[in-house]
Specification:
- By secondary structure, the protein is α/β, with parallel strands linked by helices.
- It folds into 2 domains: about 5-210, DHBP synthase (Alpha-Beta Complex), CATH 3.90.870.10; about 235-305, Rossmann fold.
- About 30% of the residues lie in helices and about 15% in strands.
- It has an 11-stranded mixed β-sheet, sandwiched between helices. Strands 12-15-13-14 form a 4-stranded parallel β-sheet, covered by helices on one side.
- β10, α7 (about 200-205) and β11 (about 210) form a beta-alpha-beta unit.
- The longest helix is centred in the last third of the chain and has 16 residues, at about 265-280.
Length: about 300
């Protein structure tokens, strides 16, 4: 049985103690729940891959309490400093060259010469990181390729009995994984759309982001089939076909509506929870077309991967 911990001082201390002992603990962040292990402990990190059924070529994000902590593990840059000052703590992950003698398990980077780092904006997660006083590797707390977890109940539905504990601090406020920006190459690159709109990042940098087009996995969340319900997903639907359930957006009749008012922030926060609810019906899921700007870009990315052939 997986232990459920409250977001109290005692619960946070218990979570940090379990991590220190090499156990796996699902922790809340503002984006989604993360399946955490001490990033310095190779056996613990291997446990993440085993519990999720995650391919070992898919790297992990390391979560840290502040930017100064991140600088211990990666080669910092002016662009990194600019983005960290603008958006950390928050839903932004930076991929930077890995420092030698970093002390991290090589499983965290999947053998790559770069590392994904993030400073999350969630009080309970921050307190666990400070209590542990070390880096935490934490992909989304769900079986690999399935719908991400935005509540403790989602975590338990996929991982109960496979991890030591979940720290339950209610639903995630952002509801989408972090935006990932690559800073290990010649220019800033959008590696994964996420909870921070790319337009805001471009404004902070004063330049356009490059995009990546290729099959090579260099950051989390790049697998073609990902975030997938058990049922089939059909995109750009005008209405539900017979036997389908409809996920809507804006003013319309549907089974669940991401945001009746057409608010993309609300839609992002509801996306994974509503996919979980519709998947529980056992019926194929039809999804209406959403705008492809701001957070809509990240929502559409997740839906496209959810609908990809498996």
């Amino acid at each position: 049985m997986t232990e459920t911990l409250p977001p109290t001082a005692q619960g946070i201390a218990r979570a940090a103690s379990l991590l220190r002992d090499g156990a796996l603990v699902a922790l809340p962040t503002e984006t989604v729940y993360g399946l955490a292990a001490d990033a310095r402990n190779g056996a613990a990190v291997a446990g993440i891959y085993a519990a999720k059924g995650r391919p070992s070529f898919n790297p992990l994000i390391v979560h840290l309490p502040d930017a100064e902590s991140a600088k211990r593990y990666v080669e910092w840059s002016d662009d990194a400093d600019r983005l960290a000052q603008a958006f950390w703590p928050g839903a932004l992950t930076l991929v930077l060259p890995l420092k030698p003698d970093n002390g991290l398990s090589s499983l965290v980077t999947a053998g790559l010469p770069s590392l994904a780092v993030r400073v999350p904006a969630h009080p309970a997660m921050t307190q666990v990181l400070k209590n542990l006083n070390g880096p935490v590797a934490a992909p989304s707390a769900n079986p690999s390729g399935k719908i991400s977890a935005t509540t403790a109940a989602h975590v338990l539905s996929g991982l109960d009995g496979r991890i030591a504990a979940v720290l339950d601090d209610g639903p995630c406020t952002v509801g989408l994984e972090s935006t990932i920006i690559g800073l290990a190459g010649p220019g800033p690159t959008l590696l994964r759309a996420g909870g921070l709109p790319a337009e805001a990042i471009e404004a902070a940098l004063g330049q356009r982001l490059e995009t990546i087009d290729g099959a090579e996995i260099i950051a989390p969340g790049q697998l073609q089939s990902h975030y997938a319900p058990g049922a089939a997903v059909r995109l750009n639907a005008k209405a539900a076909d017979p036997g389908e359930v409809l996920l809507g957006f804006g003013e319309m009749t549907c089974d669940l509506n991401l945001s009746p008012s057409g608010d993309l922030t609300e839609a992002a926060a509801n996306l994974f929870d509503y996919l979980h609810q519709l998947d529980a019906t056992g019926k194929p899921i039809a999804v209406v077309q959403l705008p492809d700007h701001g957070l809509g870009r990240a929502i559409n990315d997740r839906l496209t991967r959810a609908a990809a052939p498996r």
